[in-house]
Amino acid sequence: MRNLFQPDAVDELKQRVAHLRPDSPRKWGKMTPGQALAHYSAQLEMILGKTFPPRSWMGRLFGRFAKPKMLGESPLQRNMPTDELFVISDDRDLDQERERLVRLIDQFVAGGASICTRHPHSFLGQMTPLEWATLMYKHLDHHLRQFGE
Fold this sequence. Notes:
The protein is mainly α and 149 residues long. The protein has helices spanning 7-19, 33-47, 57-71, 94-111, 129-146. It has one domain (1-15, 52-149). The chain is 53% helix and 0% strand. Helix 2 runs antiparallel to helix 5 (129-146). The longest helix has 18 residues, at 94-111. The chain is globular.
């Protein structure tokens, strides 16, 4: 499974991010490209230990069942529910969000496994660094596919 610890996977994602345009048509969902990158960056900040969202009660009940599917080979499903902490509804400048995202990805890559939070995922629970890296690859891939990239 591809993940953010693989240099070629990181390069591929960055190239796809670079192709996004403010008017890239979405295939599903409600977010604009700028909002999608801001949403992803907010989650990456959590993994880097900058924010600490609480576990959801739904996650405590069902997270362990969802985790293998979320980390499996299949792409993430369309229109999955989003933790309210990561919903971005205001307008976002795509270029600013792209720069922020690339900076955060570079920080994640430079820090390696030791930079990953020990705080549990709000839905899936405890995660290893490799699980974080895999989930975040899949998550960004999901939003790039949302806009045809």
